[in-house]
Design goal:
2 domains, six-stranded mixed sheet
Length: 349
């Protein structure tokens, strides 16, 4: 075969192969690859962007001076609110055990964006003791945040080591024991007598100006027992200067600040102290404002840093929504206030 014929034959074979490669179903289309941003070929639905809340300004009025647990707890809350678009300004307005501040807030317009930082002492007990110009019904609840814990402590060398042995000692030694409390004829005095009923136990009560005076007289040996905050008692307990017997926290049983200390309720004594702190707006405040503030408070109360900040000042972070807050205060109004009024009348008499 000539060279020319060989070349023609090879060219023919190449053409046949090309035709065969091009054969197939005319309708066949290459398989479509999934889009790179659609895993497994499934359609990805984009979430709508979260609506950014408009910033608002509010005032939180504290009925006590700067530096105490009421003031510090309000300031920690105000600081945390900034992350929720709420610019909270803390205003100290001391006077009348917080009643002057409460009266001021109660007279503000419903849309004033002003809130009272208050517990039952201000909202219920003081108005029950006399005309303060307002009652709890002049306010709307906006979220309960926390509660300071109080305690009963004894001098370091006391011949008792718990509530049962203390009561037994008082019974066997009438008139010997002296209890130092925070003032006379007020809610704190009332609570002290719920802890140790003077109708059943013979002891003496001495009212001091505040918790610092109680601690000073207790560690100095001038009184045998003291009714003071757990935050103030704890370092003295750890140093051996006094012994904390019980806490009187109402929202929880054991305070994380001193988890080994039993609650007064564990001894069958109904004397849990109603100190929970919450925000209160003038009655008729816009519901959207209440909802905005209480939603922020709910989230804040679950924040670990916030919880620790509160624990460091002896306050338990514990959220109740506005309805739960109202129900709690109404329970205090129904259960404790009548007893307090009766006790106050006997005390004044």
């Amino acid at each position: 075969m000539t060279k020319k014929k060989v070349l023609l034959l090879m060219l023919a074979m190449v053409m046949v192969v090309s035709l065969l490669a091009g054969c197939g179903s005319p309708d066949a289309e290459p398989e479509e690859e999934p889009e790179p941003d659609t895993p497994n070929g499934e359609e990805v639905v984009e979430e709508p962007a979260a609506e950014e809340l408009e910033e608002i300004d509010i005032d939180i009025v504290v009925g006590f001076g700067a530096g105490g647990s009421n003031d510090l707890s309000a300031r920690y809350l105000a600081e945390a609110m900034h992350a929720h678009g709420i610019n909270a300004n803390v205003v100290n307005m001391p006077g009348g055990m917080g009643t002057e501040a409460a009266y001021h807030v109660s007279t503000q317009a419903p849309d004033s964006h002003m809130f009272m930082w208050a517990h039952p002492l201000i909202m219920s007990f003081e108005p029950a003791a006399g005309d303060r110009g307002y009652t709890i019904h002049d306010f709307d609840p906006a979220g309960l945040v926390a509660s300071p814990t109080f305690a009963l402590a004894s001098k370091a060398d006391a011949p008792w080591d718990d509530m049962d042995s203390l009561i037994e000692y008082i019974q066997e030694n009438p008139g010997e024991v002296v209890l130092g409390g925070q003032g006379e004829g007020n809610m704190m005095h009332f609570i002290a007598e719920l802890i140790l009923d003077p109708d059943e136990l013979d002891y003496s009560y001495v009212g001091f100006g505040g918790g610092a005076d109680v601690a000073l007289n207790l560690t100095g040996g001038h009184v045998d027992l003291g009714h003071l905050s757990l935050a103030a008692a704890r370092p003295l307990h750890e140093d051996g200067d006094l012994t904390v017997l019980v806490n009187t926290q109402i929202l929880i049983d054991r305070d994380p600040l001193m988890p080994d200390i039993p609650n007064i309720d564990e001894f069958g004594i109904d004397a849990r102290e109603p100190h929970p702190l919450g925000l209160w707006a003038p009655t008729g405040a816009p519901q959207e404002l209440i909802d905005r503030v209480s939603s922020a408070v709910e989230e804040i109360a679950q924040d670990e840093e916030f919880i620790q900040n509160y624990q460091d000042i002896g306050v338990v972070a514990h959220y109740l929504n506005p309805q739960e807050q109202w129900d709690f205060f109404m329970e205090v109004e129904d259960d404790m206030i009548p007893r307090f009024v009766e006790w106050l009348e006997a005390f004044d008499g």
